[in-house]
Amino acid sequence: MNSKGILTLQFGHYSNFIGTHWWNIQEQGFDYTSHSEIDHDVLYREGVTNKHGVTFTPRLLLVDLKGSLKHLPERGELYDEPPKPTKSDVNWDSDLVEIEGVSGNNKNQFLKDLENPEESHKVLTKTYDLEKDVTVWSDFLYSRFHPRTVTVINEYQHENEHTPFDAFPLGKDLWNSSSFEDDFSNKIRSYVEECDYFQGFHLLSDCTDAFSGLSAGCMEHLEDDYCRKSILAFPVVPSFFPDSKFETKEQQCHAIINESVRVLNLALSFNAFNAHSSLFVPLCMGSKGWRQPGPKNEFNHTVYDSELAYHSSAILAAALDTFTLKHRLKSSSFSLVDLCADLSHNGRKAAAASLCMPFSFNVDANLLECLDNWEGPLTKSITPNCTIGSDRLMQYVILRGIREDRLKQQADRAEKQRNLPAYKCDSITEMLSLYLSYSTHATINNVTVVRKPLDVKTPFPRIFDEFIGQAGYVGATPRPGHINVESVPVMAGLHSGSGVGDMLESLYTEARRIKYPRFHQFINAGIDKDEYEACLESLLTLRENYMDNYYI
Amino acid sequence: MAISLLNPKAEVARAAQALAINISAAKGIQDVMKSNLGPKGTVKMLVSGAGDIKITKDGNVLLHEMQIQHPTASLIARASTAQDDSTGDGTTSTVLVIGELLKQADIYIAEGLHPRILAEGFDQARTKALEVLDKIKIPVEINKENLTDVCRTSLRTKVHQKLADLLTDVCVDAVLALKQGDKPIDLHMIELMEMQHKTETDTSLIRGNISTKIIIANAGLVLDHGSRHPDMPKSLRNCYILTCNVSLEYEKSEVNSGFFYKTAEEREKMVVAEREFIDQRVRKIIALKKSLCDGKDKTFVVINQKGIDPISLDMLAKEGIMALRRAKRRNMERLALACGGDAVNSFDDLSESCLGYAGHVYEHVLGENKYTFVEECKVPQSVTILMKGPNKHTLIQIKDAIRDGLRAINNTIEDKALIPGAGAFEVTANKELLKFKDTVKGKVRLGIAAYAEALLGIPKTLAVNSGFDVQDTIVKLQEESRLSPDPIGLDLTSGEPIVPKDLGIFDNYIVKKQIINSCTIIASNLLLVDEIMRAGMSSLKG
């Protein structure tokens, strides 16, 4: 346990969708040999079961509502066999014991195969109809969890309209109820205690419902108890809400109100992230995020359905896995503190993320040619309402899956390429840095290159079009039907610049327009108008940190 | 009707219909919970679709598990939650009494009595019932015997008798260990620690009615973590204990990060300088240890709320110091209470006076979990109750029971009084209310009569659950109650009237008081509802 551990926290259903994909991706890509570039011990931990079995499970705590796990037992199956309901361990007269069972949920084919020792090794390459089968995240969970990982909120039920868990203060109150905080902070402590060089936290949180309040409460706790550890937070917004498909007038009213509630939650939670995290990066596959998620972000050679959480969360997970690589590498001593410090100068606590998946790279191409022909920016923003631009930025760019031997044409066949200044570059890092320094203005670029591509075997959705080959490069002819894409090169980045200010401004404007006093569920739960106003003001102050025209 | 003009889709139920909805809901959940009441009630084992098991008899837990959608039922559920929060017991009774009150009211309302008159009667009856409660309460001395009685009564309704008696001793001992004169007791100073042992081997040893072995670490504390260095001692005697909240972990400062340092050497230099700062702290501890322990039969333990990194651990291990990092915040308080000394926030003036003492500190490893026992302390004012069990759901059931037991004891200490149990209060209050009814003029007395009848619901349910004839039992109880000067309760094994006081069956005063108050208010409110509206979100939220 000699590595720089990070504890991941996931709050909310959509966050758990993203998280599930993320752990799946990582476990497919496990490389147990010593020359693995990625240090798996950062996000994973080694453990021992009571039966002396060695386990390797995510260092993870996740929270979801009651009823959202379906067939996944709260404590997982790795450490204990799921207990059998027997009357003898009830400590009561056994003729006075009633057993009440909820009818068992049918597992889908993917999970059945995963359980079956004869089938489980084939799962990664088999095709399932997961688009239809997935309703909750545990439906496509490939990893197995430590018994400590899952926390279920019993007070609220998943998708219950009568007692919805939809307002920031509800989550805050839940955190403050002593039983939740005691239990959860104890779980955090147990994970942190076992790490020798603990770096900090990755925190994913839904920020359109009450989970935003819960994560805000949790961050306050982290700030108090682990004051010098970094918190890298990812507020996430789902790319689709079922209520936006209204048919009747009444449903439309409903949708409008829900949209306003979401904006309020977003405003309150961004304020909390600003106050308590080290750096926060909002993520959404819709380009607008609020009030509606807006048109989906498109990528070349990718076809996905933004209405499926299963699809959109997979793309966000790919981005997450890529841009967190830099502080998860074996070779560097770069850590989470460095990342957060570099991107949050001058109180710029919010940053933007971008992605290019797959990184369009022809089968027979080299990087020089590829970049030379590239049009437009390399990556696209996956932070809502934010255009990253190319002016006055601090940015980290990570490219994975391109081998060094694909850098440029060999000298004897180079022809025109020799005349390009980039031909002098001897490594991908160098060439990409050069490209970025030409294509941006007054920008600090930091480039990281990782050999390992992103693994996209099942249960990752099949979202790539027919021109993407098995290894993820763009081919001239369509890929044969029986072959599936197994990995893709990906580029992702984290950026801090004036575009982030525009995002904050747009949220501020939307939140300003809402007549707060009409939302009694917020006021009843203890956030009065003045507090809300103060929150908006601090959003505006944060926004001002991004105005750079003052200094010129 | 205004709302139907504004929102024609709003559903409205009026007057008799509204009342019928409320009454049927209250009766509905009463029926579900009825069988759980008392030491002969049933226990429910709830199995989720994923196979998670929850064992409970607690009304409050059941109500939450049932996911009530009905607005009336959820109002009652909330009353029961409030009951649990403030007293820790009586949640099933709350539901039963509310249900019973509405059932009785229903009879009169069917005959044309106005709900408001009933509500008024309820209110007068409530005042009278509180008087009766005060009259029959028995002031008690706070001693082991009395506390044991009340705790046992409460626990026997939660777990099997044998286990209940065992837990009772544990709970009483724990509270008495903490009690200091008249100061209120902080139950947080009792740590409940679970230890799940290896399933196959251990259960075979202790099968039987009590599948759980419980140890009380009376003289100290159990921490759920151990030292993280292979060379540290695993067991020490005669220990000085330093509790502190000081980071012994090198952390990169932010100026030292990414963009600013291009070469690795430059960075390394910075790191060495910063590292020195932490080393100095560790050396201070070592210096103190040397001055106190060297040449004497003493050892040294550091328990830190902050982190300790491997280099610091290594330095400490070389000196034979046992060091634990990231201790629970509350355990820091507990340690100070158990071992003496103070938790220090800086090492500037470290001296012997800050240190605590424990006779024996040792580590116990179970699977991937480590436990550290701190025993033989100077002034044990903090207690850990260690629960061992074969599986999680049993452990949780026992934990819940222990919590309730502790609450029952604490209630007694705060009330300095007890109420005879086994339904004695209800029978007595019924008798007194019927007498009182005759002194009241007008229709209000019907409300009082209904209230008196409703209270009998508790002994009736107890009788049903124990398998006795209801009418028989109640008549016997009422007769005996008229003759006897002492409150009369029901013996659940024989079905005969008994004097609960003589048998040591007691309930908490505050629990009964809370039940009378909250049930009356909720029932009256439900009776007075003459309209239930369910309007679309658009009209209410927007």
TrEMBL record, chain A:
Cellular compartments annotated: Mitochondrion
Domain Misato Segment II tubulin-like: 6-115
GO cellular component: mitochondrion
Pfam family, one: Tubulin_3
Keyword Iron annotated: no
DML1/Misato tubulin domain location: 132-329
BP GO annotations: mitochondrion organization
Protein name as it appears in the record: Protein misato
Organism: Exocentrus adspersus
Automatic annotation (TrEMBL), chain B:
Principal place of residence: cytoplasm
Provenance organism: Exocentrus adspersus
Protein name per the record: Chaperonin
One cellular component term from this protein's GO annotations in UniProt: cytoplasm
Assigned keywords, A-Z: ATP-binding, Chaperone, Cytoplasm, Nucleotide-binding
Pfam families xref list: Cpn60_TCP1
CDD domains: TCP1_zeta (cd03342)
Entry's family note: Belongs to the TCP-1 chaperonin family.
